[in-house]
């Protein structure tokens, strides 16, 4: 889910086909300084904003196959797995917010997703990319892509009925079963899932979404294999990736031997871990995990929050001063998940302010498009308009509309 390296010599740019960080072409860092823009009107309708984003997606990204092109510039003829499934996630949020018009789009894109599935391997698994018509599946298979996809399908399972409901559950289980049988968990660095089938590193976010999926599937199915895997992943993450000095999870481990720990903290890694702890606590009937999730939330709101602009930073590398709608927007989902558990309004305040900050920074007020990267002040906007960023802004605005 991240495509990044750090510092002036390696700032963020898209690697296209997965939802993780990777080696990239360097760009100079953008500025987030200056005077914060004015606050948006108090009467803003987050559901209207979500619908406006959906309209932009329909008019600029949707194909006749119910796939979604990756972006409107460099990859207009490519289709990426986690981009497509993020749009399903966004549509599921709209349906849950009361807009049933998103349901047929969600279901038809789910059918299109079969083109990504590896049918030559009994273990299956989603490849990273296909052509716009669903042919030519290829690239590595990514743990984070498949884990997130399973979670997306379980949300769709929650809001559908009959054969559709069962189909979503079956495919969520297939994603989890691929993770278990993929061979991407091994004893290197004491355990943990590799990021992808090339095995470059073991990130927090890949393991976090896997933990979410296993915990949720155990709750839904009662299958103890999912419970045991959720526990295994949780133990590895807590023992290897949690920085006790900050209360936040680090980026990844790589390198030979014992491995090098990259200790940068990312907003969306930790938002993922909030949700992972909440789901694990529910699955295990262990109330202490809500307290753990709350502790991550409090640490995020101290370390990963820009108080001047009232929004989440991308990560703790001081050279990275721009924000991204998907990866920074994930912080809003984490805060909403906390509010849904404890009803503490402070989480909603952070969630709402973060949406507003991203709308100031990255939204084109005329087209309703979101730029890939921009400074908090709306400066230094990158030219790319990525499908996944539109999807995540649609999603978090639809989620917020239920409460604000």
Automatic annotation (TrEMBL):
<keyword id="KW-0732">Signal</keyword>
<feature type="signal peptide">
    <location>
        <begin position="1"/>
        <end position="20"/>
    </location>
</feature>
<dbReference type="Pfam" id="PF03663">
    <property type="entry name" value="Glyco_hydro_76"/>
</dbReference>
<dbReference type="InterPro" id="IPR008928">
    <property type="entry name" value="6-hairpin_glycosidase_sf"/>
</dbReference>
<feature type="region of interest" description="Disordered">
    <location>
        <begin position="23"/>
        <end position="42"/>
    </location>
</feature>
<protein>
    <submittedName>
        <fullName>Glycoside hydrolase family 76 protein</fullName>
    </submittedName>
</protein>
<dbReference type="InterPro" id="IPR005198">
    <property type="entry name" value="Glyco_hydro_76"/>
</dbReference>
<dbReference type="GO" id="GO:0016787">
    <property type="term" value="F:hydrolase activity"/>
</dbReference>
<keyword id="KW-0378">Hydrolase</keyword>
<dbReference type="InterPro" id="IPR053169">
    <property type="entry name" value="MUG_Protein"/>
</dbReference>
